């Protein structure tokens, strides 16, 4: 089953002489449970693509279907709710809320939705992320690896249909990088969580089931490594 379907996606930033075509007629699908790496040179359009898949920013043309919902037919409010429930986003610099504790950062998407926190699920997630002894800490009291684990917890708490990560290990040393990738892979394999990771790190790309190369806003190569 295709959890994600992208049809003729294009994105132009700006207008007139300064217009930049960041994505140029990109189409592909991702199966549920697949782990795909997205690679390509700086400026090729990787982050733009992830933003369009995650409902963060609207494309100039084309469609994105997540679990059969056409994202860009939703209005802003519907899109914000859909994003919170169905899309887990992980960034290089964590994007945690500095004044909220670890526990509050992780449960924030549920609270914004006025959903109750499932205590058992929360306990399971923080245990797997090894954050049990850090729940009352603020983000600036944590190491980089710990902060990224909090952002993974926040992305997982609403059981999203897909997890999108933009260079999740770009700010970490090699030991912490491996830990973060192992965690993402664990959630991918154990919970059949669909995972798309942008990376400049070849060792990470080679762990994926599939590697999609982006060049000049287009798919230059799309290789299945593990069918
Ligand atoms: N908000 C924006 N306004 C104008 N141009 C933008 C904007 N965001 C990105 N671009 C341009 O779109 C192109 C693609 O950018 P994008 O951030 O998607 O690249 P990337 O592949 O993620 O690069 P990197 O590996 O450096 O993160 C670049 O030429 C960039 O300058
Ligand atoms: Mg980028």
Automatic annotation (TrEMBL):
CDD domains in the cross-refs: ABC_MJ0796_LolCDE_FtsE
Keyword NAD included in the entry's annotation: no
UniProt keyword Nucleotide-binding present: yes
Xref: InterPro entries: AAA+_ATPase (IPR003593), ABC_transporter-like_ATP-bd (IPR003439), ABC_transporter-like_CS (IPR017871), MacB-like_ATP-bd (IPR017911), P-loop_NTPase (IPR027417)
Highest taxon listed in the record's lineage: Bacteria
Key words of the record: ATP-binding, Nucleotide-binding, Transport
SMART domains for this protein: AAA
One GO MF term: ATP binding
GO CC terms in record: membrane protein complex
Domain named ABC transporter: residues: 4-227
PANTHER family named among the record's database cross-references: CELL DIVISION ATP-BINDING PROTEIN FTSE (PTHR42798:SF6), LIPOPROTEIN-RELEASING SYSTEM ATP-BINDING PROTEIN LOLD (PTHR42798)
Family per record: Belongs to the ABC transporter superfamily.
Protein name: Putative ABC transport system ATP-binding protein
Source organism of the structure: Evansella caseinilytica
Organism classification: Bacteria, Bacillati, Bacillota, Bacilli, Bacillales
